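Incident log, entry 3
Record: TPM domain-containing protein (226 residues)
Problem: checksum mismatch between cached and fresh output.
Input:
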Amino acid sequence: MKVSHVSEADHDLVTVAVAAAEAHTSGEIVTVVAAQSNDYDDVALVWASVIAFLAMSVIALFPEFYQGLYYRLTGGWGHELTANEWLGTVIAVGVLKWIGMWLILLWRPLRLALTPRAIKAGRVRARAVDLFKVGTEAKTLGRTGVLLYLSLKEHRADIVADEAIAAKVAPEVWGDAMAALIDDVRAGRPGAGMAAAVTQMGVVLAEHFPKGDENPNELPDRLIEI
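Fresh output:
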């Protein structure tokens, strides 16, 4: 059974907004929403490695303290560790720290929280571009398709435009649309945010690509969930 990221009411809001925006422009707006753009497994690997390295570094910096701790834990009955045994112990601690951190980061909300904002923005952008290439790029006669992509868990969105639109509309022009979208998403209203963004996008498209005598609906108006 498919799990929906947004409600039916959200779907209706976005569909109506797309149809209304396209009534005044030859541009075609495609809307896509995803729960998350990336699993960030590499970020978890980096964090686990950093924690393991720090743990081993601290032991290496304060060997007397940790050797004393070892003897206290063994009640003084533990034999004096050789250099090789001590090195093996330090490595074993690092491995255990690595495994422990990796297991903790299997909880995806924590993994996402520990991912730097710049990395999240880059992964959302990359996913938007991939989806644009598959479903929007060169799918209209005038190369006037534009994709609005929302990634819910990252609270990030992106707009990717086809060749004709990109030639006339600078990326920063979409700023009002993005601001309207993210404000509503953070307030728990993804459908309203996407509808507001679509409306703003329609204003920009109508200015540069007004509706002509022949204006076939070449791309779907409905909100696509992935």
